[in-house]
Amino acid sequence: MQAKVPLTFSLHCSISPMKVKVPLPDGFFSTPPLSDNLRHEYIRQSQRSLVDFVAKTRLRGGPISWTFDHEHHGVTVYRGKDMHLPSGYRTVYLNVTEVQATLDEAASIMSAGADGRRDYCATYHNDQVVDLKNLYPLATPTPSHPHNSISIKWRAVTANNPLIKLRDMVFME
User: Fold this and answer.
1) φ/ψ (deg, to 5) at 107
2) pLDDT at 116
3) What's the whole-model pTM score?
4) Is the distance from CB of 157 to CB of 132 less than 8 angstroms?
5) How confident is the model at residue 121 (pLDDT cuts 50, 70, 90)?
6) How far is CA 11 from the centre of its chain?
């Protein structure tokens, strides 16, 4: 059974129908406390998702058979079929590049920071991410797991295109 996030949205889960200015003020979202059981279920769900993600991105020996598609500016693109996705959405792509860094340096690039507020997309795609709120920090770094971070976040994005309105989403990271 998949758990649902118990969030109260004043904007019917989307900021599109209502005129609001971003960034939203802190405290805009009502986030009732999570029970310990629900918090642990979210953590387990995120751990399962990570294991699934790592398996699916294995170039060889994973559940997806990857085929070379093309190379562009040092990024090799592979195409595959994820049979767990709905028909019509099964084609997936894997981008592979080489980065000269230690594992700690690579982890730092993707890090959510000690408080979970930093966001990779907001940092590296700041022309598209117009607002971000950390709704529920579920797991934070510890001395034994310095790269640990699991949060439920809200993000508002734009495509910088007059035909596409501001979109928002709640997601677990």
Assistant:
1) -65, -35
2) 60
3) 0.78
4) no
5) confident
6) 22
